[in-house]
Amino acid sequence: MKKFTPEFWLQRLIHWSLIFSFTSWLASCNSDNILIGPNSLNSRYTEEQPALSGNGRFLAFISNRNGSHQLLVYDLAEQRFVSTPGLNRPDTIAESPSLSYTGRYIAYITSDQGRPVVALYDRATQLSQILTPAYRGWVRNPSISPDGRYVVFETASRGQWDIEVLDRGPNLELDIPNGATVGAPPN
């Protein structure tokens, strides 16, 4: 018959305490610690290509939650998603979002008849429009000015990547903070 010596008992205790500690550590590393819910910024799905509005309140990003590839807008101040009807169309992919100062305007890449185009979504009117329907080449990486008047993007219409600046014109409602003055456009 074997006797239990204090050293053997101590080794056994250390062994089991190490196993318990390691198991606890592994359990604490799972993704259950991430706040996930209908109003949560994080999810168990891929989120990428974040863009922040100029005032720092709104965040636009591409997500694979809800079973589809979509562009989402999140209000950081209220910690909730912003409704954007008409932005995510079925059978299209949105990429590379860019926000104006208050997040009213969102410039992004989408597809039109199988090729990428630069589109603009106006959160006030809830309408989306294609800004580059006549471009023969590929486009990518749009960025909108803080006031929403200018959209810049890369285009390969000349066989190399070039920068294009699109002026949406002086007759649009600018995205400026309340009370801000607007100067004359540069010549």
Describe the structure.
The protein contains one helix and eleven strands. The chain has one domain (35-167): TolB, C-terminal domain (Neuraminidase, 6 Propeller). It is globular and about 85 Å long. A hairpin with a 5-residue loop joins strand 1 (47-52) and strand 2. 12% of the residues lie in helices and 34% in strands. The strands form three sheets. The chain has a four-stranded antiparallel beta sheet with strand order 1-2-3-4, with no helix packed on it. It has a four-stranded antiparallel beta sheet with strand order 5-6-7-8, with no helix packed on it. It is mostly beta strands and 187 residues long.
Task: Write a short abstract of this structure.
This protein is mostly beta strands and 187 residues long. The protein has one helix at residues 6-28; strands at residues 47-52, 58-63, 70-75, 80-81, 95-99, 105-112, 115-122, 127-130, 139-144, 150-155, 162-167. The chain has a single domain (35-167), classed as TolB, C-terminal domain (Neuraminidase, 6 Propeller), CATH 2.120.10.30.
Could you name the CATH class? Mainly Beta
Q: Secondary-structure element sequence?
A: HEEEEEEEEEEE
Shape: globular
Number of DSSP helical runs = 1
The largest β sheet comes out as:
4 strands, antiparallel
| CATH topology descriptor | Neuraminidase
Supply the number of structural domains: 1
Based on helices, strands and strand pairing, what is the structural class?
mainly beta
Mean pLDDT: 82
**Ranges with pLDDT <50 over ≥5 residues?**
25-35
